[in-house]
Specification:
The protein is α/β, with parallel strands linked by helices. The chain folds into three domains: 1-39; 42-161 and 202-269 and 289-365, Alkaline Phosphatase, subunit A (3-Layer(aba) Sandwich); 417-502, Arylsulfatase, C-terminal domain (2-Layer Sandwich), CATH 3.30.1120. Helices cover 30% and strands 19% of the residues. The chain has 15 helices and 18 strands. The strands form five sheets. Strands 1, 2, 3, 7, 9, 12, 13 and 14 form an eight-stranded mixed β-sheet that branches. A four-stranded antiparallel β-sheet has the order 15-16-17-18, covered by helices on one side. A hairpin with a 3-residue loop joins strand 15 (417-426) and strand 16. The longest helix is centred in the middle third of the chain and has 32 residues, at 291-322. The radius of gyration is 24 Å and the shape is globular.
Length: 505
C-alpha cells in the first residue's frame, strides 16, 4: 500500500551507488513495503436493489440464482439480516456510513447522504484514506454523484444502459415519461418488459457488469488495493430482462399470494404501493391487482433476479480469471426487501418483515465457505466488518459491530435485537415514525407522532413462535404484558442499537 507520508525517491541507478549497508536497508524496506501492499485485501462490494432474501441458496427452489448460490458456497449466508430503512436512499446512506437514520437524518429515497452529513466518514472514504482506489459503478448511493470526491477516487459511473430495450417499451416510456406533480416522482412506461432476443448489455445492468469487469482487469494490473462498489438495479421496477431469463419460469405455475389487505389489528403498517402506480400499465386508483397482472409482475421480478444473478456471475468469473479471488473480500447485500402481492401489498416502504429483511452474503479468503448463520444482523454491521477483515482501523462512533466472530463461528451468540424504522403520513394523524425491533421471537413496532420522542400512536406485536405467517397483532393480549415491557425498554435504544456484548444470558 502506498504511504501518504512524504518519502525520498531514488532511481535504480542511484541504488547501486549507495554504500553497502544503506543499499541493503533500502532493498529490504522496499521488499517489506511491497509485501505489505500485496497482503492488503481488496473489496468487491455488490449492492442489489429491491432484492428479497428468496434466492435458491435461501431456500426458494423456484428462483434460479446459480451464481449467487455459488458465492454463498464460498462464504457465509446471513439468514436474518435487516436493513435500517426500507427505502433505497436512506438504507444506502445507513450502510455506507455505518450509522442509523436517526443520526444520518436520511429517511427518504432522494436525500443525498452528503447533504445531511457533509463531515461524516463514509465507508469508501475510510478505505480511500487508507490508500485504496475506491470506485462506484452503477447504483450505490441513490443520488448519482453522492460522496464524490470524499469517498470515491473517480466520479461514480451511472446510467450506462437503457431502461427499456424493445421498440414498444421505448415508445411507451417516452410517452409516459414525466414528473408527478403531487409526489415529484418520475413516471415511466410499463412495469415489466420481456426484452426478447437481446443480449444482456441491452439493459443497464449488463453494461454495469461489462464496465465493472473492465475496471477489475485494470485494477488487477495495478499495485494498489481497491474497494470496487458495483450496484445492480434489477430486480427494481420496471421488471425488464432479456427473454432468455423470462423463459426460465412458467407463468401458469406462479402462485398468487394471499390478498389480505390488513393483518388483524395492524392499522399503521403496510405499503400503499404508490411506486408501482408510477408505471403506465398500472392504474393510479388500483387497490388490488387481478391475477393476470399479478402473475405477470411476479414473472418479471423472477426474470429480473435471474438476469441480475448472471451479471454477478460475470464479476465472480473475472475475479477468478484475474487471480484477484485469492485476496478479495466479496459482499453481496440488498438495500431492503420487497412486497410481491404479500398481504395485498407491493413495493416496500414499511417497517414490516417483508420489507425490512434483506439478503447478505460475505465471502472472505481467510474465512470458511459454505456457512449459514441465523444470527440477527443489520446492514450497519457491514462497515466495521469490512474494516476488521481488511485490517483497517475501526472508526469511532459506528453503530454496528464487526461480524468477524460470526464468520468464524456461525453459531456465535449475537444481538438480542435489530432495528428498522420508517416515516410515513397517516391520514387524520399526520407524520408518524415507526420504530421496529426484531428479536428472535418477536417484531415489536412503535408508531409515534413526528419523531422518536413524540406521542405514542400505535403498537404492533407479532409473535413468530405462535404465528409464523405473522397475521395477528397481539399487542392488546394480556398474556404478552411482560414481553411488551422488555421490548419497549429495548426500543428506546434504537438510535445506537444493541451491541452483541450487551446480550444477557
Amino acid at each position: 500500500m502506498l504511504s501518504e507520508t512524504p518519502c525520498l525517491i531514488i532511481a535504480p541507478t542511484q541504488i547501486m551507488s549507495l554504500p553497502k549497508p544503506f543499499k541493503f536497508i533500502f532493498l529490504f524496506s522496499t521488499i517489506v513495503s511491497s509485501a505489505f501492499a500485496a497482503e492488503k485485501m481488496n473489496v468487491l462490494f455488490i449492492a442489489v436493489d429491491d432484492l428479497r432474501p428468496e434466492l435458491n441458496c435461501y431456500g426458494n427452489q423456484i428462483i434460479q440464482s446459480p451464481n449467487i448460490d455459488t458465492l454463498a458456497s464460498r462464504g457465509t449466508l446471513f439468514e436474518r439480516a435487516y436493513c435500517q430503512v426500507a427505502v433505497c436512499g436512506a438504507s444506502r446512506a445507513s450502510i455506507m456510513t455505518g450509522l442509523r437514520p436517526e443520526t444520518t437524518g436520511c429517511w427518504d429515497y432522494k436525500t443525498p447522504m452528503r447533504v445531511k452529513n457533509p463531515d461524516v466518514l463514509s465507508m469508501p472514504q475510510h478505505f480511500k484514506n487508507q490508500g485504496y482506489t475506491t470506485l462506484s459503478i452503477g447504483k450505490i448511493y441513490h443520488a448519482h454523484s453522492d460522496d464524490f470526491p470524499q469517498g470515491w477516487s473517480e466520479k461514480p459511473l451511472r446510467g450506462l444502459g437503457p431502461m427499456y430495450a424493445s421498440p414498444e417499451g421505448v415508445a411507451a416510456n417516452n410517452k409516459a415519461r414525466g414528473i408527478q406533480k403531487e409526489t415529484g416522482v418520475r413516471t415511466a412506461g410499463p412495469a415489466s418488459e420481456n426484452g426478447g432476443d437481446v443480449d444482456d448489455e441491452a439493459y443497464d445492468d449488463g453494461m454495469i457488469a461489462k464496465t465493472a469487469v473492465e475496471r477489475m482487469k485494470k485494477l488487477a494490473a495495478g499495485n494498489k488495493p481497491f474497494f470496487l462498489a458495483v450496484g445492480f438495479a434489477k430486480p427494481h421496477l420496471p421488471f425488464n430482462a432479456p427473454g432468455k431469463y423470462w423463459d426460465l419460469y412458467d407463468r401458469s405455475k406462479i402462485q398468487i399470494p394471499s390478498r389480505e389487505d390488513v393483518i388483524n389489528g395492524l392499522s399503521y403498517d403496510g405499503s400503499n404501493w404508490g411506486e408501482l402506480k408510477n408505471y403506465s400499465d398500472i392504474s393510479k386508483n388500483s387497490k388490488v391487482l387481478d391475477d393476470a397482472k399479478t402473475r405477470e409482475l411476479i414473472h418479471g421480478y423472477h426474470a429480473s433476479v435471474s438476469y441480475m444473478d448472471a451479471q454477478v456471475g460475470r464479476l465472480m468469473a473475472a475475479l477468478d480469471e484475474t487471480g484477484l479471488a485469492k485476496n478479495t473480500i466479496v459482499v453481496l447485500w440488498g438495500d431492503h426487501g420487497y412486497y410481491l402481492g404479500d398481504f395485498g401489498d407491493w413495493c416496500k416502504h414499511t417497517t414490516y418483515e417483508v420489507a425490512a429483511k434483506v439478503p447478505l452474503i460475505i465471502s472472505a479468503p481467510s474465512m470458511k465457505g459454505g456457512q449459514r448463520t441465523s444470527a440477527l444482523t443489520e446492514l450497519v454491521d457491514v462497515f466495521p466488518t469490512l474494516c476488521e477483515l481488511s485490517g483497517l482501523p475501526l472508526p469511532e462512533g459506528l453503530h454496528g459491530s464487526s461480524l468477524k466472530p460470526v464468520l468464524k463461528d456461525p453459531a456465535t451468540s449475537w444481538k438480542e435485537g435489530v432495528f428498522s424504522q420508517y416515516f410515513k403520513n397517516k391520514p387524520n394523524v399526520g407524520k408518524v415514525l415507526g420504530t421496529s425491533l426484531r428479536t428472535d421471537r418477536y417484531r415489536y413496532t412503535e408508531w409515534r407522532k413526528k419523531n422518536q420522542d413524540g406521542p405514542l400512536e400505535d403498537i404492533t406485536l407479532i409473535d413468530f413462535k405462535t404465528d409464523p405467517k405473522a397475521k395477528k397483532n397481539v399487542a392488546d393480549d394480556p398474556n404478552y404484558k411482560e414481553p411488551l415491557k422488555k421490548l419497549k425498554e429495548l426500543t428506546t435504544r434504537s438510535g445506537t442499537g444493541i451491541k452483541p456484548e450487551e446480550i444477557k444470558p
